[in-house]
């Protein structure tokens, strides 16, 4: 099988099918394997942001204007349609300025994406004591909040 001739979208669809087969065989349990890295790649490619090392706390990328971005993605799969993003840590420590978040469908097509100011994230998040983090649900009404920017078309243009 020659994967070099496949488009980015074709490779992602193949990856989704492969992960499903591995889950069926009991090898994997997670629905979100490449989701976070893909979200970072798409936002940085779409906006020209500079990615930070994986070990950096609370910030995934920085824009030319100096804004700091935390990037999250969620794959909406048939078994788990939750829109809860992964844990947001240090939300009260001014670690980032904007949350860049994307919802993917089951084969990594882009459903919706947004740039969400940190003050909106704070108002809409719930603190979870046992994980020392905040939970944020990327519901459709987030796009109606003041200063939220719909990034869907920019990310789709990358795929």
For this entry, give a set of tags.
single chain, 159 residues, alpha+beta, PvuII Endonuclease, Chain A, six-stranded mixed beta sheet, 4 helices
Could you please describe the fold and organization of this structure?
The strands form 2 sheets. A 6-stranded mixed sheet has the order 1-2-3-4-5-8. It has 159 residues and is an alpha+beta fold. It has a single domain, classed as PvuII Endonuclease, Chain A. 28% of the residues lie in helices and 23% in strands.
Give a quick summary of the entry.
This protein has 159 residues and is α+β, with helices and mostly antiparallel strands.
Could you estimate the helical fraction of the residues in percent? Answer: 25-40%
Helix count, DSSP H or I runs of 4 or more residues: 4
Mean pLDDT: 91
Main beta sheet strand tally, sense and closure: 6 strands, mixed
- The tally of structural domains comes to 1
The gross shape turns out to be globular
Computed CA radius of gyration, to the nearest angstrom? 16 Å
CATH class (first level) name: Alpha Beta
Low-confidence region ranges: none
Strand content: 15-25%
Topology:
Layout: H1 8-24, H2 35-47, E1 50-51, E2 61-62, E3 68-75, E4 98-104, E5 110-117, H3 118-124, E6 125-128, E7 133-136, E8 149-150, H4 152-158
Parallel strand pairs: 3-4
Antiparallel strand pairs: 1-2, 2-3, 4-5, 5-8, 6-7
Helix pairs in contact: 2-4
